Amino acid sequence: MTINKNTKFLLVGLGLIGGSYARGLTEKGYYVEALTRKDKDCRYALEHEMVKKCKSGIDEEMIRNADIIIFALYPDTFIKWIEENGHLIKPGTVITDVTGVKGCIVEKIQNMLPPMVEFISAHPMAGKEVYGIENSDERIFYGANYIVVPTQRNTQEGIEACKRIGEILGFGRISELSPEAHDEMIGFVSQLTHCIAVSLMNCYEHERLEKYTGDSFRDLTRIAKINEEMWSELFLMNKQALLEQMELFEGAFNRLHDCLKNDDKEGMKEMMRISTQRRKIFDI
Amino acid sequence: MTINKNTKFLLVGLGLIGGSYARGLTEKGYYVEALTRKDKDCRYALEHEMVKKCKSGIDEEMIRNADIIIFALYPDTFIKWIEENGHLIKPGTVITDVTGVKGCIVEKIQNMLPPMVEFISAHPMAGKEVYGIENSDERIFYGANYIVVPTQRNTQEGIEACKRIGEILGFGRISELSPEAHDEMIGFVSQLTHCIAVSLMNCYEHERLEKYTGDSFRDLTRIAKINEEMWSELFLMNKQALLEQMELFEGAFNRLHDCLKNDDKEGMKEMMRISTQRRKIFDI
């Protein structure tokens, strides 16, 4: 599977991420078709020339014609789609996804696929606080992180094809993690931060809070505008890893709380020195 | 005290915030002098035409000549400065500050000042993760929030002069809070967020974390690069209010933790709906 300008991509799902994939691939001159759930998204994609062809629902011919299928669906919907339609995928097809949790998805999907269909999972670490095809924008990927999540069952060729998609879309760092390491990492850097932002907005209802906030509060709570359907599902699918990360965070937060309570200025300063040092690495 | 182009401003302290005040006022055509602790900051300010006159240390004539004195010092240093030099301030002078906590400062300073010198406290809610005059930039104030913190002892004239400074510097929303309400608010929107960012960077040392982070983690931890000297002092000066805010946050965070632990999807979704709704108000 070498990706070239004859490669036929099929996007399944044209929400924010799927739509942005479609725009990015089309923009770079690749041939893209798409299947969506809603007629109106299909019309939108065609009107905006995001794809060459689009149908709502299932189209057996489009599925058979695809060389690479990219699933941009919620985890549950993705599994259900493969259960119902996986048999329509022709041998030799590579399929990939954009799902934010991996442990409970990757092997399950790999086990359901017909022989000779390779599923190589990926996580594009980009997004917005708004949803839907109308907000899709290929530029959200530029310079962002892209994680490829292979298992023992993946081929080097499949992994390379998956990485190539990340390159085409303009991602910055492209790396590999096992499903378990991915979920631990994502529990920390993505899900825990969303838990914090949600908690922060829940703990207090100040009247006219917006009059008093500085940038720091705005930055910390930007992601508190959250798609509750998707994120509650992602949290539950990564329950154990996320609970562990939440408990680690609480441990550190309690340490700081106790330093303050005990007037332990040195203890606070030490934690601040550590955070400053670790955070600086990101800006290099 | 009506501010006009004959008004003589004296900045005491030319760090990030003091330097930005100096730049902003000079830029708008006002006459600004400054006192600094370090010779080199003095030279920097003069070389960059941020002020008309600058001395390091104390200059009695400059203090007597000022119509408005703006203190941009750490809280402890501010109190010490007034203790030692407050008697040099001439009657009719208005003094203001930029201090991030108020309860333990405002009345104390007001009690120490000579008669006919009015202290009207302000909190410019702007900053950067970097420090010092070299990083000062008047644009950090544009559109930001500016809180005036009067007590019973302030005059309407003093309050108006203080607000006028905020307007001149280009702040967006200018509002008034009592010292107690200010400290509660700041405990929540500013100090608590810094506690969270510091804790988040302390709870886990992932190798090469930067390869996997998305925007949300970067945004939440931007302020984890923190001036430990200043912030540990600010935390301790606002200890009770901050401890309360930390405990409120922990309560909400634990609620989310327990929802997840108990597979309570509806409970998580409800918290996410609340956070989304509350956070949206900021973007109007």
Give a quick precis of the structure.
The structure is a homodimer of 284-residue chains. Chain A is α/β, with parallel strands linked by helices and 284 residues long.
Detail the topology: elements first, then pairings.
Two copies of one chain form a homodimer.
Chain A: E1 8-12, H1 16-27, E2 31-36, H2 39-47, E3 53-56, H3 60-65, E4 68-71, H4 75-85, E5 94-97, H5 106-112, E6 118-119, E7 121-125, E8 145-149, H6 156-168, E9 173-176, H7 179-202, H8 215-221, H9 228-237, H10 239-261, H11 265-280
Parallel strand pairs in A: 1-2, 1-4, 2-3, 4-5, 5-6, 8-9
Antiparallel strand pairs in A: 7-8
Helix pairs in contact in A: 7-10
What does this structure look like?
The structure is a homodimer of 284-residue chains. Chain A is an alpha/beta fold. Chain A has 11 helices and 9 strands. Chain A has helices at residues 16-27, 39-47, 60-65, 75-85, 106-112, 156-168, 179-202, 215-221, 228-237, 239-261, 265-280, and strands spanning 8-12, 31-36, 53-56, 68-71, 94-97, 118-119, 121-125, 145-149, 173-176. In chain A, the strands form 2 sheets. The first copy, chain A, has a 6-stranded parallel sheet. Chain A has a 3-stranded mixed sheet with strand order 7-8-9, covered by helices on one side. In chain A, helix 5 (106-112) links the parallel strand 5 (94-97) and strand 6 (118-119). In chain A, helix 7 (179-202) crosses helix 10 (239-261). The longest helix of chain A has 24 residues, at 179-202. The radius of gyration of chain A is 21 Å and the shape is elongated. The model of chain A has no long low-confidence stretch (mean pLDDT 93). At the A-B interface, helix 7, helix 8, helix 9, helix 10 and helix 11 of A face helix 7, helix 8, helix 9, helix 10 and helix 11 of B.
